[in-house]
Amino acid sequence: MLINGGCHCRNISFQLDWRPEPEFIPARACDCSFCVKHGGVWTSCPTGRLQVTLHEPDQVSVYAFETKTADFHVCRNCGVVPVVSCSIDAQLHAVVSVNAFDDVARSLVRQASASFGAEATGDRLARRKRNWIAQVEFVPGIAGGR
To answer: pTM (2 decimals)?
Structure first.
């Protein structure tokens, strides 16, 4: 299943090749203060492939807080955070926001609460390595070609 998504103004867009085809899409509503304030509900497919296109890279900020182990990619134009990435053992991993999906029926998304605040950094990285998308590529886009 190909899932397209991105921020509101399309400055940051993504295509997630979800393999194998899902019966449903598991989504985690994180209870950290950043995700609560931004409506962060994340999903990942460890066997999938993610391509993130940055049309105006200078209009994307990267925000990391607390443990500084995850980079939240924030569009400076519209304020949406469609992708979070993390480098683990020199490999990029990522999750995407189900709220940034373009072409997925909401009935396919199964949302549950998630709390990771008490996790030790090593445990957090091990969980991400197991569960986050491991084939991630950020590519430049054509400015104005959204």
So the answer is: 0.90
